[in-house]
Amino acid sequence: MRDHNLSVLGSTGSIGTQTLDVARRLQVPVCGLAAHSNIELLERQIREFRPVCAAVLQEEKAAELKERVRDLPTKILSGIDGVCAVATLPQATLVFTAIVGIAGLIPTLEAIRENKSLALANKETLVAGGSLVIPEVQRRGLELIPVDSEHSAIFQSLLGAKRPREELRKILLTASGGPFYGKTRQELSAVRREDALRHPNWSMGAKITVDSATLMNKGLEMIEAMWLFGVGMDQIEVVVHRESIIHSMVEFCDHAIIAQLGLPDMRVPIQFAITCPEREQTPGPGVDFAALGSLSFGRPDLETFRCLSHCIRAARMGGTMPAAVNGANEMAVSLFLRGKIDFLQIDELVGAVLDAHSPIETPTLRQILDADEWAREYVLTQYQVR
Ligand SMILES: NC(=O)C1=CN([C@@H]2O[C@H](COP(=O)(O)OP(=O)(O)OC[C@H]3O[C@@H](n4cnc5c(N)ncnc54)[C@H](OP(=O)(O)O)[C@@H]3O)[C@@H](O)[C@H]2O)C=CC1
Ligand SMILES: CC(=O)[C@@H](O)[C@H](O)COP(=O)(O)O
Ligand SMILES: [Mn+2]
Question: How far is CA 228 from the centre of its chain?
Fold first, then answer.
């Protein structure tokens, strides 16, 4: 197995904690940790993994953490500069980007500037900033390993291809359909926060779980796939697959289809990002096909789950539009989670931003961040008007 030293951005979250589970089991050292404000968990992680450096975005929380771990040599940093320092630690050989939202973009760009290999979970970074991230990764010849389960599946399915760009016909991106699969808009108008947070197959952070319920997650993942695998929107087909056993598939020019399957457990793609192209022993059971009996497939309902169509339109328009739509969704989901808006208002607000934003082609980082900021403000004004 490769000798890695990990920096984990977003170490206290769902992906972050599972990354540390894998690091613990494989005995991979961890040199950097970063989080937003959960210093109780971060302290426990520091005491276990003894990183060189840890960062907390919130200044007051960072000061508190510094006090708590003053018996240890770990350097405690704060703010966005601290998070970027963890992303660029000289000791780090693989940077896990597991921060949620566009907040992951700047640390990811900083890691790229330091020629780091990346294990990318943070899909919003590519949705908003793929036009900056991907050309720079390619120009520098860096490793960018997808962690998102579908994209890891596509990556693994393409590993044997001699000429993947020429031979790939299409990507079959699987979608669970979320907790509200089969519901009408009338029924969706009454769903509650706790219903949206009950994903049928995966245990994940709150924001991505709501995205799965609106199918925004699948829209974000289409855009993520475009950037990672250099395909157009028309080469990606979303297939509803309720069981989340097939994590995605690729169809080649001869119609041969290769897929990656497994139980829904993020520690599998996380581990593969660390060990690839090799594999390591993992305890526990695998898929029992006889017990499953059958697997189901269907088409997504774009009329009911409008966030998916919004993302497809945004991707086709390009420029700053995906950043605006992503920013609108981040704000709308935050409002929904705080009980300020209903479930259906999420796609209405995202749609309103899609209609109102004038995208800038080939944007700079500043223009991407401005589009995100503008979309958030627009959502706030629209929602206050109601
Ligand atoms: N969870 C999953 O199974 C999957 C997640 N992903 C993607 O991975 C990313 C992370 O998701 P998930 O783990 O579910 O999210 P969580 O909400 O569980 O965790 C988010 C992590 O990011 C930290 N964080 C939030 N904002 C900032 C910031 N501004 N600066 C530094 N750290 C910050 C949080 O710190 P704190 O705890 O202190 O708030 C926490 O550690 C998302 O982009 C998601 O779409 C992709 C596939 C599967
Ligand atoms: C685990 C993972 O990668 C999530 O993105 C998951 O795929 C969500 O599932 P659906 O969006 O298909 O419900
Ligand atoms: Mn996914």
Answer: 12
Task: Provide residues with CB under 6 Å of ligand 2.
Answer: 148-150, 175-176, 178, 202, 208, 212, 217-218, 266
Ligand 2 center from residue 212 Cα (angstroms): 6
- E strand intervals along 215-262: 236-240, 246-252, 257-261
Q: Which residues contact 110 (CB under 8 A, 6 or more apart)?
A: 84, 87, 88
| Smallest-distance ligand from the CA of 43 | 1
* Ligand 1 binding pocket, CB closer than 6 Å: 10-16, 34-38, 57, 83, 98-100, 103, 121-124, 148-149, 202, 204-205, 207-208, 266
Atom of ligand 2 nearest to the CA of 148: 3
| Complex ipTM more than 0.90, yes or no | yes
Tokens read off for 106 = 């700047």
What's the pLDDT band for 1 if we cut at 50, 70, 90? confident
CA distance 99 to 254: 39
Structure confidence by residue, pLDDT tens digits, 24-66: 999 999 999 999 999 999 999 999 999 999 999 999 999 999 9
Distances (CA, A) of 256 to 132, 245, 357: 33, 19, 41
Pair (139, 209) in one structural domain: no
Mean pLDDT of 300-314: 98
User: 84 and 115, same structural domain?
Assistant: yes
Whole-model pTM: value is 0.98
Candidates 318, 258, 269, 263; CA nearest to 129 is 318
> By residue range, what is the domain housing residue 114?
6-146
Q: Which of 235, 269, 302 is the last residue of a domain?
A: 302
Question: How far, in Å, from the CA of 57 to the mean position of ligand 1?
Answer: 13
